[in-house]
Amino acid sequence: MDLTLTEKHRALRDEVLAFIEKYRGVAPSPGGGRKRPDAKVLEWQKLLLEHGYFARSIAREYGGFGAPQDLIEQAIIADAFSRAGVSPGIHNQGISMLVPTLLEVGTEEQKRRWVGPTIRGDIIWCQGYSEPGSGSDLAAAKTRAAVDDGHFVINGQKIWTSSAHYADMMFLLCRTEPEQSKHAGLSYLLVPMNTPGIEVRPLRTMTGRAEFNETFFTDVRVPVDQIVMSRGQGWHVANITLKYERLLLGDPNKLQQRLEAIRRMMTQPGPDGSRLLDRAEWRDRLLQLQGEVMAGRHHNLRLLSEQAEGVDSGLGRLIVKYHGTMLGHRLASLALDVLGSAGLHYEPQGETGEDDTATTWQIDYMYDIGLIIGGGSSNIQKNIIGERGLGLPREPKAAVPAGGN
Amino acid sequence: MRFGLTEDQGLFDRSLRAFLSDRLSLETLRRLAEPGTGFDADLWRGLGGIGLHGLLVPEEHGGSGLSMLDAALAAEALGYYAAPAPFAAALVMAVQAFHSAGDAGQQNEWLPRIAAGEVRISLGFAGLAGQTGRAALRLDGGRLSGALDGLMDGGEATHFLAYLPDGRAALLEAGSVGTTVTLRRSVDRTRALADLDLAGVAPVALLQSSNDPLAAARRVCDAGRVMLAADTLGAARNMLDRAVAYANERVQFGRVIGSFQGVKYMCADMATMLEPCRAMVWYAAYAQDALPEEASAVAAHAKAHLAEVGREVARLATEVHGGMGFTDLLGLHYQFKRITFDRQVLGGPERCRHDAAVAQGWIAA
Questions:
Q1: Domain check: are A155 and A35 in the same one?
Q2: Ranges for the Acyl-CoA dehydrogenase/oxidase C-terminal domain (chain B) (predicted)?
Q3: pLDDT value at position A405?
Q4: What is the rounded distance in angstroms from the CA atom of residue A263 to the CA atom of residue A252?
Q5: Which domain holds residue A53?
Q6: Cys-Cys link to A143, which of A174, A222, B173, B320 (CB 3.0-4.6 A)?
Q7: Distance (Å, rounded) from C-alpha A350 to C-alpha A33?
Q8: What strands, in cross-sheet order, belong to the sheet with B179-184?
Q9: B49 with B100, same domain?
């Protein structure tokens, strides 16, 4: 264990803090990621990329900053932004899930073509995974892609495609080898959303907004080279993406951001002039969550260290999504309680929806349940933790009634 | 920078665990726990043989001069096997007390004797650390009178280190005139607490060389809290491991019960709560040596968080064992009670979180 900062690291920390001080006025509000980045967000992203505070260790030829992989540098940067309550840049599915997947298993051409515009926020991706008949049982996907004249021809339906209504591209899990077994018949394709035959229908959620969509494919043609790895390897690629999705969903820096935001709210004098932070029952609730966030953050440092050394963290990694999303929801719950009746104000529609504190916390509080369910629900996570992490046996297969699948 | 254990730490951990696993069969543990003194001479000597006594004592005083993280790993292993051995107070807090407030002469005199295993110091605070019970001590003309309850590592202690409300600490010899020691058998029979009644006792040493005695006392308490957190981590991990093993072997309805989601999810929940605690304890221990500005807050948080997680794991792991978990037969209750003990000593979670708020400057003390 050695957390001492070298001269170089101390210099970086000072540099980041000075950057935040100088530019925080032009930073967009943290959070978001639920609408297309506007000019302010894109400008901020550009600034972060130029300074190497985003995509720091991604190679320059792919549009990154090209610094050597350095865990402490990443931790210093993430910590400085989360403590200051300043946006650390865009975190969407393309950046947090597709980019690391391509960097891990994409071709050289794919990395050069997609990584740069994606991390700049110019290309927005959505994820074509779930179907009406395959949610938790993702590998049962039925959306079909048959090969015809150098193209995949896609037919079928996806659901829960967040941001499909403004996305430029989709990474799509579909069945290309129907004669193969369930898991071996899938492929992972990259599909432009403006291809003829794609229809996106908004799916209104409990938040009153349409963060998700249903996406329909009718004879959608994509060139056969728009595939990651090869035919039949889609399940493998999808699991790489899921690994990153689960780490994204459990991101402890986001939890730290929330904790700080709640602490600041609790230092504001209420109508009677007193601060909630001075009241033991309120303070203790915040402190309980602070302890949990602290454990999550230190756990994350351990995982990063192990990752840098090429050690598989096993159980340590498998718990992150379940742990983080449940904790996130408890933080949002405390925020609502701190706001009290004044926090019931709710106008989720329109571009300004997320600029209002009460509305944003209400959305988070509901949206977090979506995150608990999505990306492999908590119960699926518990199966994975129990079976892959602890070595408990799988549930015996239920007998399939005749005519079923 | 590196967040993790070194190769040496891994080796030390494995050899300590191998020793404890070999020495503490359930049968032996039962026998050693029976008197409730939290001490066994053979086990104590054996632990000395693998370097536990002088773990934190600097090399020039006959110890191995290791770090608080090494001590936390030892505490975790001792908790895992519910070892009836003085540790948190006798081998960690006492050493920290001499470091933070002992003068050179006192360090020269006492640290080598701690490292040699011949001095075992039981330790308690008067009102500084959230201990409940009697805490009324006064030092008059160099003599100590009054009562102090719940000194840690009290069984077979050779000395007592009693903290005064102002942060100074008086070291007393166990048999000295005017000292009455009442050993309180605790619910955790592997560790004992001592109650002291003192009538004009002359201390053999007074630790008061620090400029800020309260801060010095705080550091001793913080070190103790980290050790108790690590102890709970070990005990809870033991309970989880045993619950998983049991769920993998017990058959009902023609299936091992671990294949039922109801049981599997209990195990997954325990693992999810417990796994991040390892890094939390490592960090809290490391902070005691290297991050003085955070040390107190993270020690308090680690103690409080492990107390909460420990309580959940203790219940869930017992439940997974079904009726067997509730019996004396499996001995799972030794770890259960270890967790019960750790939660209350040096302040329960509410008190620890309050201390964390003070340490972060959120509120005045």
A1: no
A2: 218-343
A3: 45
A4: 16
A5: 7-91
A6: A174
A7: 15
A8: B135-140, B143-151, B193-201, B179-184
A9: yes
Active site residue A309: no
Contact A393 B259 (CB under 8 A): yes
The nearest alpha carbon in chain A to B283 belongs to A298
- The predicted pLDDT at position A376 comes to 87
pLDDT score of B90:
98
From B56, B90, B115, the end of a domain falls on B115
Provide the pLDDT for residue A402. 55
Which pLDDT score is estimated for B2?
83
Helices (H), A178-319: 234-249, 252-266, 280-308, 315-318
- Low-confidence stretches of chain A (pLDDT < 50) are 404-405
Residues paired with A156 in a beta bridge:
A217
What pLDDT was estimated at residue A375? Answer: 83
Q: Are B237 and B306 in contact (CB under 8 A)?
A: no
CATH number at residue A292: 1.20.140.10
| Amino acid A365: pLDDT | 96
Angle at B272 between CA A388 and CA B88, to 5 degrees: 120
Do A310 and B295 touch, CB atoms closer than 8 A? no
For chain B, positions 243-282, list CB contacts with chain A under 8 A: 244, 247-248, 255-256, 258-261, 264-265, 267-269, 271-272, 275-280, 282
Amino acid, single-letter form, for residue A41? V
Contacts of B165 (CB under 8 A, 6+ apart): B126, B127, B128, B135, B137
Same domain, residue pair B71 and B144: no
Tokens of B291: 């991050």
Low-confidence ranges of chain B (pLDDT < 50): none
A313 is written with which tokens?
């963290």
Q: Are residues B227 and B176 part of one domain?
A: no
- Using left for φ > 0, alpha for ψ between -120 and 50, and beta otherwise, residue A232 falls in left
Is B187 in a helix, a strand, or coil?
coil
Q: How many domains does chain B have?
A: 3
Answer whether residue B364 is part of any domain: no
Q: Which domain holds residue B322?
A: 213-359
Alpha helices in B85-212 (DSSP H): 94-101, 104-115
B180 plus B218 within the same structural domain: no
Tell me whether residues B272 and A302 touch, CB distance under 8 A: no
Q: At what angle do helices B213-249 and B94-101 cross, to 10 degrees?
A: 160
Structure tokens at A12: 């970086």
Which listed residue (A245, A260, A281, A309) is catalytic? A245
Euclidean distance between CA atoms B321 and B272, whole angstroms: 19
Question: Which contacts qualify for B27-31: CB closer than 8 Å, 24 or more apart?
Answer: B29/B81, B29/B82, B29/B84, B29/B190, B29/B331, B29/B334, B30/B331
According to DSSP, the β-strands at B135-140 and A144-148 are: unpaired
CA distance B70 to B52: 10
Same domain, B299 and B344: yes
**Cβ under 8 Å to B: A residues 308-337:** 309, 315-316, 319, 322-323
Number of structural domains (chain A) is 3
Indicate the Cα dihedral angle B145, B148, B152, B155, nearest 10°: 70
Looking only at Cα atoms, what is the longest distance across chain B?
75
If asked whether residues A306 and A180 sit together in one domain, one would say: no
Q: Which of B112, B146, B143, B148 is nearest to B206 (CA)?
A: B143
Mark whether A132 and A228 lie in a shared domain. yes
Share of chain A above pLDDT 90, in %: 75
